[in-house]
């Protein structure tokens, strides 16, 4: 009985991720989620009393998958270039497994920024950032890398890692019509890391 309950709950979450990713919070309907999960609406409400509660769980799970690699990057004690290479690989792995994440988060980020700030606080992202900012500044001062704003460097790394997944439909049509996009994205992490490192290396 317990296994059946867990299976039902997981089916609900899978359905909710799909519907919320496609339609956002405002456009999603509990009936559509129930239909997609193969259950009736009453059973859906038994597990999740409101659309808000279900969305909160789905959104937090999604955002944590995006933020956790960034938190690890910030708090890591590794040498800077290796850290850059590591985060590129982690984002590639996460986004190949959960390709809906960037669009899902972008669709909702403007409607309630406080939700994101709360999750970032829980994951210690903001606090850990100072450690990597200091590391980047020290690399500049020691002459290892060219002068660059640490925040800009971090933004470049995340943007280059995440944007191809956001823009995949356009990229496939406009740039890579005859290319296996999965294979391209799968091999992109090292190219992104090399591009970033070469752009700052002296």
Overall description:
- This protein has helices at 2-27, 30-37, 41-47, 51-75, 80-97, 101-109, 113-122, 125-141, 150-166, 168-174, 181-186, 188-200.
- It is mainly α and 202 residues long.
- It folds into 2 domains: 1-49, Homeodomain-like (Arc Repressor Mutant, subunit A, Orthogonal Bundle), CATH 1.10.10; 66-200, Tetracycline Repressor, domain 2.
- Helix 4 (51-75) packs antiparallel against helix 5, helix 5 (80-97) runs parallel beside helix 9 (150-166) and helix 9 packs antiparallel against helix 12.
List the helices and strands and how they pair.
Elements: H1 2-27, H2 30-37, H3 41-47, H4 51-75, H5 80-97, H6 101-109, H7 113-122, H8 125-141, H9 150-166, H10 168-174, H11 181-186, H12 188-200
Helix pairs in contact: 1-2, 1-4, 1-6, 4-5, 4-6, 4-7, 4-8, 5-9, 5-12, 9-12
Defining key terms:
single chain, Arc Repressor Mutant, subunit A, globular, mainly alpha, 12 helices, 202 residues, Tetracycline Repressor, domain 2, 2 domains
Note the total helix count.
12
Note the gap between the termini. 62 Å
* Secondary structure category: mainly alpha
Overall pLDDT level: 86
Residues in helix, %: over 70%
Domains (count): 2
Q: List the secondary-structure elements in sequence, H or E.
A: HHHHHHHHHHHH
The name of the CATH architecture of the largest domain is: Orthogonal Bundle
Largest sheet geometry: none
């Amino acid at each position: 009985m317990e296994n059946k309950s867990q299976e039902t709950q997981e089916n609900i979450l899978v359905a909710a991720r799909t519907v919320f990713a496609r339609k956002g919070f405002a456009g999603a309907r509990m009936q559509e989620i129930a239909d997609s999960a193969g259950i009736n609406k009453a059973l859906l409400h038994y597990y999740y009393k409101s659309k808000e509660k279900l969305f909160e769980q789905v959104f937090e799970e999604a955002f944590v998958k995006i933020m956790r690699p960034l938190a690890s990057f910030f708090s890591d004690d590794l040498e800077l270039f290796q850290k850059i290479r590591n985060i590129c690989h982690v984002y590639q792995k996460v986004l190949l497994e959960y390709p809906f994440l960037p669009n899902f988060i972008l669709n909702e980020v403007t409607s309630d920024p406080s939700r994101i700030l709360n999750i970032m606080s829980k994951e210690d992202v903001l606090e850990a950032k100072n450690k990597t900012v200091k590391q980047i500044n020290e690399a500049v001062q020691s002459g290892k890398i060219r002068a660059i704003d640490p925040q800009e460097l971090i933004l470049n790394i995340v943007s280059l890692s995440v944007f191809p997944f956001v823009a995949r439909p356009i990229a496939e049509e406009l740039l890579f019509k005859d290319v296996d996009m999965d294979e391209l994205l799968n091999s992109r992490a090292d190219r992104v890391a090399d591009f970033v490192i070469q752009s700052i290396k002296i």
